[in-house]
Amino acid sequence: MARFPFSAIVGQDEMKQALLIAAVDPSIGGVMVFGDRGTGKSTAARALAKLLPPITAIENCPYGCSREDKDRYPDVCGTGPLRKRPVPFIDMPLGATEDRVIGSLDLERALRAGEKAFEPGLLAKANRGFLYIDEINLLEDHLVDLLLDVAASGENVVEREGLSVRHPARFVLIGSGNPEEGELRPQLLDRFGLSVEVRTPAEIETRVEIMRLVAAQERDPEGFAAQWAEEDDKILKQIARGKNRLAKLEPDEDLLTDAAHLCLAVGADGLRGELTLMRAARAMAALKGAKSVRREHLIAIAPSALRHRLRRDVLDETGSTTRITRAIDELFG
Amino acid sequence: MTLPSDRAGISASDPVHDAEIAARLFLSSLAGFKGMVLRGASPARDAMVAALQDALTQAGQPVRRLPGHVDDERLLGGIDIAASLSSGRSVHQTGLLQQCAGGVLIVPMAERLDPAVSGKLAQALDTGDGPALVLLDDGSEDDDAPPANLLERCAFHCDLSTSRSRSVSDMEGSAAKPCAPLDSEAREALAGTAQALGIASLRPLLFAADAALAHALLAGRNHASKEDLAAAVRLVLAPRATQLPDFADTPPEDQPEPPPPPPDTGDQSDSEDQPVPDGPLEEMLVEAAKAAIPADLLAALAQGHAPRRVTGGGTGKRRKSGLRGKPLGARPGMPRGGMRLALIDTLRAAVPWQEVRRREANVGDDAPIQMRKSDLRIRRFEDKAARVTIFAVDASGSAAAARLAEAKGAVELMLAQAYVTRSEVALVAFRGEQAETLLPPTRSLTRARRALSELPGGGGTPLAMGLDEARACADAAAQKGRTPSLVILTDGRANLTRTGEPGRKQAGEDAIASAKAIARAGYDALVIDISARACPEGAALAQAMNARFLALPRADARQIHSAIEAVQPAGRAAA
Fold it and tell me: pTM of this prediction?
């Protein structure tokens, strides 16, 4: 099925911005999208993966390793010429078992040939791409733990069934879920870099526009893609430029102080808040093509970077976003 | 093709008519509409399923039924272990999804579908390379519904539980033909109608637009008329309504059928440039939707609360003794359905037979190990069931309003704790002449807070009713493999009997009888006496319930919470 072009997605600016930032700096640690069904969460994530330029990988490597990876993980990579392949986008089903996710003993080879071989799982497939999990709040906790751990460390270490395998697994984790149906533990939420809230657009015009675009896309997928190719290309260039610029940007002392003040003011637990805020502001500046990381970048990304890290007071009804904007107003007003 | 006309004996408002239209539209584009939900076990539904099967078989499209216990290998395909072992080479089997790709997969008892399976089906629907679904929903209660992720992705929802029809007209699949796209007026009308009905998701809106076009084609038109839009609203949007449309300025029309198209439908496209957001077209569509909303849904919506169809066990916290927990040792079995192979035990089982098997197979000593299916061992684990703490709160006048606020506070604190203990919380309130479950077992703070804030106080004390309701809630939780425990906050002064009659003596006896029923079921219970002065009734109640008893005459929320914590065995609360 043809995927919907990223630039043709109407509205949902915060989600698109968070995805672009994660694409510029994957070390930010994934994006959590809160929202109802049918708000275009997976459409946006898929579209972004399709938008990105193909990666160069060793032809028959199950992990899609690049040449540098091969030096770091010499024993797991396959051999062969380098070939281009599309950026992987792995849609992890809710009922996936641990075996399927991290990989397991290749049963067939173990039983037939008596060989101890590793059968790569979804984490291997997602290497250098995106791992999307719809309804991550309904996923079993031990799996979420495992995913976040691998996403943070960038490699999957398997020690089971007599296997001892280490393979690269660097991916952008995108989780989505509706908090009405069950919440994610705060410890897990904290490990997501950014979190965004999406709502279905309430304006009739926006909804009509979406219907029009989807109808046009269904009628003629290729033509529609061609029509939006230029816009998509702009975003692609923006990401590429942002990636290049990222290394050159160094947040100055003032910005770090601002970040620390803001985290203290909203009462974000732990140090991850500051670190993500700093990284996200830097990625934001890189994406915008700015020469230095400025306070406006910090303010623009602060709700996404901190929203899910605030200590929740069960008796306080004020939303996290309100608390953050209030703190920003007080501090930087 | 003509649309179904009235048949003898079947009234014009029978839901089967709409279901027939929906089925025709569904057949015209399986990939576009992705699915159909048929609710209620009735002869009409059986006839409908049979007709669909016939139509698909004639069109040469595969139709399969999904067995409830399907495992990953059968669903998605994989290696057939038994065949591979006996033949000595790997034998692959194709999965059910692959086998009926491009056709239809019928899912019986969809309301009991495992989340592990529904997740994969939803994914197949999204990628579009699997089959379309026909979900058969036999759920009788509103809280027993097919998984929401599948409901969302199936275009048509038909409730046939009230249909009197015993047959449906024949159907045939027809290939999709091109049709003029919807004009902006029609799109606006559909979007406005969806909004009026409180449908936030965009998928139904897109389905409705497609359905209008398909309906036009079916009627032999090449552009969508008002009639087609009305049908799309009736079939796609109305069953998903979460609120009643409300047009303050127009008197409600009592018109169950959509009005016939006006004679000047031809110049509809001419008015394309003039958007009429609140024009008569949208009103007409909203009226059509109103007429098509099922009666029970209508009643619920009129009372102001959107029906929340929550599927049980969506969180995957069921007891899964094959997957994780404390290891229990291995037993013979096939490693599938998430069960893991116990390699060492499997080899241990195979080793003694190697000599014999080599001779049998006529191979040398250097041949690989000879395995048989009977050697396979799988691991077993003991997993603890999740705990559900059910609060039964006395919201009567005698348990003063202040105490109620404390009880609410305690529930919220418990819920915050639920993050850590992975337990769930449910809330039953009783007052006046009724007891109701305000909050089915949940871990969601958002929902709990809403249910609590809506909890009113005052009225009599139907203690027996409250206890019965709490027990029913515990039974339901136990059936889902969880361990319920009850916390009853009351002053023990029952003054309404089980049937709602006043009478202190009878009410007290009823309450004791209900308490004994809880004791018989063997649920963990705790009675907290929240009356200002401790009285013997509470203690007697606790004794009948075989429950622990706490008198907390002046406790605040935190004290109640710490008392509950202290009483619940720590190990089990953390299960």
Answer: 0.67
